[in-house]
Design goal:
By secondary structure, this protein is α+β, with helices and mostly antiparallel strands. The protein folds into four domains: 213 residues, Up-down Bundle (Multidrug efflux transporter AcrB transmembrane fold); 100 residues, Alpha-Beta Plaits, CATH 3.30.70.1440; 268 residues, Up-down Bundle (Multidrug efflux transporter AcrB transmembrane fold); 75 residues, ACT domain (Alpha-Beta Plaits, 2-Layer Sandwich). Helices cover 64% and strands 9% of the residues. Strands 2-3-1-5-4 form a five-stranded antiparallel beta sheet, sandwiched between helices. The longest helix has 36 residues. The protein is elongated, with a radius of gyration of 29 Å.
């Protein structure tokens, strides 16, 4: 592997490497593959579910029965205290305007229902879903332009499944460009502060930018193979590539700068840098890739797709930082480091001195009290786990107000809450329509049931729930509705619709957490064993990262509730945070312990730990700040889930950087001593060389 890592340093290979990357980027841009990747996003909730979920099967059965998939448009007109004659006149005039000017609807707009108190009416139509985002958005936005707004106390809002789909598409379409620009700008500023050079920062920025573009190109190929990509996974892809790619660049450049102080040749210095830092970067990248690929086992398509999409991002970041970046650094003169140009014999990062060496020396005096204190701090943070509330839903998942949600709230004030998005029941046997209707109507929490389609192959019923369709009480009602419908209609009766989709997503997520968490831990543990050639050290590292994960999650729950005042936690948040923090948190331990093992072979465990901390402390801390910064950009996006994940992962990365990797891991290693390398030969140090006796 090391011989492959050295390829970009050859006299001709360096130029060929740069040329290949630039030609590849020219081809990608020339064919607009990044744009095609964005167009391939599918942000409808139903696309998240596996094919065997009942909500998915209900949708397929309905499409086969009716001939197409319909997305209802619901427009609510409401005035507090009752609609006036002028309001009624406006509604009639709007119906004429809507039917004349709105194109792309599959049926005319019509007055569907009036509330008992006379305060509101509902106008409906529908759109035939084609899978193309614009076929939903254009009719919805045209209708909103014509009728939505506030008119002297009359509130008019467009909602329903089509309204929700349009708002979701708009939010996700606005995310990608904004996110990448914000994250790229933040990385730019951080690299200026870290390198304090107007020239050097451009090389990692070019490399990470090419990696992001390359990841989207490969990601588009995955969508052509049937992988589901949505705005959520696309956003996380950008953060992963920018954050991880910049981390790898920091590690490589730090080692390259170190080597330039020992030899004149830039090529030779880069070879030594790649021999030293390359294996750690590869091990780190493979760990994150392996952890992400575990997500492919998930039932949820949105979670499963994050596996290969994220893995491609990490692979492209690793590939770029181990090929393009070394080639550009070797081609560039030493002056690129100006104003602090590394010269032979000028010293630099010294394993005997510096702030990180001083920190290590302090920890070494009494390592056991230090690690016990660190563990207690993390356990206190874990208390926040008791504030968990999974109340985040499609209706309250936006940071800013959206019209579909506002319309749903208006409907709930004058009609049964579920009027906006009724639960759809497909009855395969026409003879059992009546019995299914009566059975479902008797379920406590169902306001009404009516037949909306009937044919030779079956019927479609709409069950209106008392509670709002995207609420936990409504989700919890789905199993009872299914039980009643199945008992009355048999196996060919299926319950779907927006509420059922949300219920099935939550159930699939519970399954995914139980399946994926232990697999990720096992995969990461095995990689650590292979890298460190020991059992004790990997066990210790896994334990510290898992404890750090629970601590970060606890703080994330508290901050989401008490500081941001979000309505709840998305049920999928713990799984995503676990995968990112375990995989990325292990990164820093890999960077540290790989160097510690290298130093231990020459100096013993105690001195190896102190020297490893001294020479990696600065660069790993910089890498942690960059990665936390890129994830924190998610917190400014208009979706609560991404904001929650951005804060929690950013906090967790900083926790790993400043407490776990800088204090807890060194203290545990110093306390355990050479036994940390058990059962390898490094564990058999002489008693006089064991660090573990210090401070006992």
């Amino acid at each position: 592997m090391k011989s492959l890592l050295l390829l970009p340093t050859g006299p001709r290979a360096r130029w060929v490497t740069v040329l290949v990357w630039f030609v590849a980027m020219f081809v990608v841009f020339g064919t607009n593959i990044p744009g095609k990747f964005a167009d391939a996003e599918n942000n409808e909730s139903i696309s998240y579910l596996p094919g065997d979920a009942e909500a998915t099967r209900a949708l397929e059965a309905q499409k086969e029965l009716v001939g197409s998939e319909q997305a209802p448009i619901v427009i609510v007109y409401r005035r507090e205290g009752g609609l006036t004659p002028a309001d009624q006149t406006r509604i009639k005039r709007d119906l004429v305007t809507l039917n004349r000017d709105v194109k792309g609807v599959s049926e005319p707009f019509k007055l569907a229902e009036e509330s008992k108190d006379g305060s509101a009416v509902i106008v409906t139509s529908s759109i035939t879903s084609t899978g193309e985002a614009e076929d939903i958005r254009e009719p919805v936005e045209d209708a909103r332009d014509l009728v939505s707004g506030s008119f002297g106390g009359l509130e008019v809002d467009l909602t329903g499944p089509a309204g929700y789909a349009s708002d979701s598409i708009e939010v996700f379409e606005s995310i990608n460009g904004t996110l990448f620009a914000a994250a790229f700008a933040l990385v730019f500023v951080l690299l200026i502060l870290i390198y304090r050079s107007p020239f050097l920062l451009w090389l990692p920025l070019v490399a990470v930018g090419f990696a992001e573009i390359g990841a989207r190109a490969v990601g588009y190929g995955l969508t052509e193979l049937g992988v589901t990509v949505n705005g959520q996974s696309s956003s996380i892809l950008s953060v992963l590539v920018l954050g991880a790619g910049t981390d790898y660049a920091l590690l490589l450049i730090a080692r390259y700068r170190e080597e330039l102080r020992h030899r004149e040749s830039r090529s030779e210095s880069m070879r030594y840098a790649l021999r030293g830092a390359g294996p750690a970067i590869v091990a780190s990248g493979l760990t994150v890739i392996a952890a992400l690929l575990c997500l492919s086992l998930a039932e949820l398509n949105s979670t499963a797709s994050m596996g290969p999409i994220g893995a491609i991002g990490i692979f492209m970041a690793m590939l770029s930082m181990l090929s393009l970046l070394p080639a550009m650094l070797v081609i560039a003169p030493r002056f690129v480091f100006w104003p602090k140009v590394p010269r032979v014999g000028t010293g630099g990062a010294d394993a005997e001195h510096g702030p990180w060496r001083r920190l290590g020396d302090r920890i070494a005096k009494r390592p056991r009290p230090v690690w016990i204190t660190a563990v207690l701090i993390l356990l206190v943070m874990c208390l926040g786990l008791f504030s968990y509330n999974d109340g985040l839903t499609s209706a309250n998942g936006y940071v800013n107000e959206v019209e579909a949600v506002r319309g749903e709230e208006a409907i709930a004030k004058s009609f049964p809450g579920g009027s906006n998005v009724p639960t759809e029941i497909v009855v395969g046997d026409p003879a059992k329509v009546g019995s299914v209707t009566r059975a479902v109507d008797r379920v406590d929490g169902v306001a009404s049931v009516r037949t909306v389609y009937r044919g030779e192959g079956g019927a479609v019923l709409n069950a209106v729930l008392v509670d709002e369709p995207y609420s936990k009480p409504a989700f919890n009602l789905i199993p009872e509705i299914r039980k009643a419908a199945h008992r009355a209609g048999g196996a060919s009766t299926l319950v779907g619709g927006g509420t059922a989709v949300e219920h099935d997503i939550r159930e699939a997520n519970r399954h995914d957490v139980k399946l994926i968490v232990p697999i990720v831990l096992l995969v990461v543990f095995l990689i650590l064993i292979a890298l460190l050639r020991a059992l004790a050290a990997p066990l210790m590292l896994i334990a510290t990262v898992v404890l750090s994960f629970f601590a970060a999650l606890g703080i994330g729950f508290v901050v989401s509730d008490q500081v941001f005042d979000f309505p709840g936690i998305d049920p999928s948040l713990p799984l995503y945070v676990f995968v990112f923090l375990v995989a990325l948190g292990i990164d820093y331990n890999i960077f540290l312990m790989a160097r510690v093992r290298e130093e231990t072979a020459a100096h013993g465990t105690r001195e190896g730990m102190l020297r490893g901390l001294a020479v990696t402390g600065g660069v790993i801390t910089s890498a942690g700040i960059v990665l936390a910064g890129t994830f924190s950009v998610l917190a400014v996006l208009p979706l609560v889930f991404l904001a929650e994940m951005g804060f929690t992962v950013a906090f967790g990365v900083l926790l790993d950087t400043f407490l776990v990797r800088s204090v807890l891991v060194p203290a545990l290693t110093l306390d355990i001593g050479s036994r940390i390398w058990w059962p390898s030969a490094l564990a058999r140090e002489k008693k006089t060389g064991e660090p573990g006796t210090a401070g006992r």
